[in-house]
């Protein structure tokens, strides 16, 4: 029997905050603010309407619901029961349709190989003990020719200053202790994990935050936050 690829402390941390997931002024404000940006980028690459989509590490469902809103058939998986309960409750308010499941990516891939047109795994890899295992599961879950999207945090001095000291302690955009620097992933590492999982890199793009305008934008700067678009060969 394989060991569950999850950190109990990470699950506990997000479970304790789960009731605040849909409060745009809460600890999850950055997720609400970046969601239109990442949704637009994903939709532009994969044309989500009518596609069968899986959101790995869906949490309270911010991205999953927004993909449903543009016409995708969305399943969301997570290992936090509390977060999933909040996600299911919010469907009554929004009227969107998402199938939420309490299951790991690895176990779900065993049950549903090559079942999805698009797989997203956003802001999650830096919270699991073995990101390569999650990436391999995402690769198994997507159909040949399908799209897999990741986002995570780079590991360097700038990302430590901006993502931990700046975001958690100075600007207080996130609760202190949200991230562990040692778990950040360099783009070279992420693309290597993807190659090992037989995913072909399509685009690497950075996401930046301007503390003066309080606006997020996509661009060439991958020093802190970045997103990766990959495809499984057809």
Describe the structure.
The chain is α/β, with parallel strands linked by helices. The chain has one domain (8-231): 3-Layer(aba) Sandwich (Rossmann fold). The chain is built from eight helices and eight strands, in the order ααβαβαβαβαβααβββ. The two termini are 31 Å apart.
| CA gyration radius, whole angstroms | 16 Å
Mean pLDDT: 92
Terminal Cα span? 31 Å
As for the CATH topology, it is Rossmann fold
The unreliable regions are: none
Q: In order across it, which strands form the biggest sheet?
A: 3-2-1-4-5-8-6-7
CATH superfamily: Vaccinia Virus protein VP39
What portion of the residues fall into strands of 2 or more residues? Answer: 15-25%
The shape is globular
State the name of the first-level CATH class.
Answer: Alpha Beta
**Helix and strand element order:** HHEHEHEHEHEHHEEE
Helix coverage percent: 25-40%
Total number of β-strand segments? 8
- Helix and strand composition category: alpha/beta
Family: Belongs to the methyltransferase superfamily. UbiG/COQ3 family.
Protein name: Ubiquinone biosynthesis O-methyltransferase
GO molecular function, one term: 2-polyprenyl-6-hydroxyphenol methylase activity
Function: O-methyltransferase that catalyzes the 2 O-methylation steps in the ubiquinone biosynthetic pathway.
